[in-house]
Amino acid sequence: MPDSPTNLRFTSEAHARELDERDALARFRERFYRQPGVIYLDGNSLGLLSKDAEDAVLKALAEWKNLGINGWLKADPPWFFLGEQLGELSAPLFGAGADEVIVTGTTTVNLHNLVATFYRPSGTRRKIIATELDFPSDVYALRSQIALQHGDQESDLVLVPSCDGRTVSEDDLIAAMSDEVALVLLPSVFYRSGQLLDMARLTAAAHEHDIPIGFDCAHSAGVIPHRFDEWGVDFAFWCNYKYLNAGPGSVGGLYVNRKHFDRLPGLSGWWGYQKERQFDMLHSWESAAGAGAWQISTIPVLSAAPLIGSLRIIGEAGIEKLRATSLAQTDYLMEMIERSGLTNQDYGYRIGTPREPERRGGHVAVEHEHGPQIARALKARNVIPDFRPPNIVRLAPIPLYTSYHELWQVVQHLREIISSGDYRKLDAGREMVA
Ligand SMILES: *Cc1c(COP(=O)(O)O)cnc(C)c1O
After folding, report:
1. What is the 251 CA–ligand 1 centroid distance (Å)?
2. Is the pTM here over 0.85, yes or no?
3. How far is CA 80 from CA 77, 85, 241, in A?
4. What DSSP character marks residue 265?
5. What does the pLDDT look like over 338-353, one tens digit per residue?
6. What residue numbers bound the domain in which 384 lies?
7. In a shared domain, residues 350 and 408
8. Ligand 1 pocket residues where CB is under 6 Å
């Protein structure tokens, strides 16, 4: 009953204000550039710029201006060790040792390098397990890795189906782990529904079958704590431009469990060479110590610099605190939508994200028959969501800079968009970059 006394209390503007007053992370809001009057709920696609990240970029520019090539050793931090230093700063977010994480490459390129390292089909063990709900880039990359190994792009890639179009059951994933499987590669959090997989359980199951397992953590890095060492995950990779707020196209990150440090990287380049001897320019290969060996090329310093500032903020806030606030905010948003009656037939919204805290990531998938128009109507009202086909409006409250009052306003907009019929006047196609 939307108008019962408890619901009226929960859905009141005053309640949202109270939650903001109690929000221990509220002090971080002013560290970010937020457009006045705009509610930004797309930080899971591209995080906003912080003053800390901006300062770090300006500092890198000044160092280039003043030091030229000497910046490689004289900048602070020296560019030559920037990937390693950022890896060390990122490691606590992943439950990893400092030398198991490196900031390098981009998500799909890191996927290629890690799959080229860990996918070693032989005999009848040739299959890769992924899912039918995976991000397309991962599927394209896996097919091309299978082709490089002279495999069959269709039969060697097992895309485990979803029962409901939103989630994939861990039992189904585990059931697919047979002796024919050479690699498991899964998202930590599904990009559409926001379902979070139980990485510990899946890792244990894969290892029971002697299968290496890796995770694409694009949608968990910076918003969910990971325990890769404890879980025994073999490898992982992620982007730094989503919840890590390091800017469009910023450098990615990867993890290699130290038990694999003796492996040769699948795709080598001089940036993965033993650092002290990299400039000996020898043709014989010698791996850098640790995950650094999985670097290929010169680090794009200006695209890595923002991460210095971003990691400072995330370190100050603490990943456990970020996760707790993220869960509280997504919970609030989902409850607001339901208690305001928006999942009733008249409004037609539906929540596609699992409700259990241990099964969801940092965003909420709101489904609607007229999804593209709802997304457009929100933008016309200065709310920035994103849209994923066929009918999903993704809303990501970012614990560092989204307030409960903003979420309260978004729910009012969702209601008014339907009750006013506004959305009907808008184009039903999605935008080129949705
Ligand atoms: C965002 C995202 C990517 C992005 O890949 P890029 O190589 O950085 O363009 C990859 N995988 C998933 C699951 C993502 O969400």
Report:
1. 12
2. yes
3. 9, 10, 22
4. P
5. 999 999 999 999 999 9
6. 5-31+318-425
7. yes
8. 106-108, 135, 137-138, 187, 191, 216, 218-219, 239
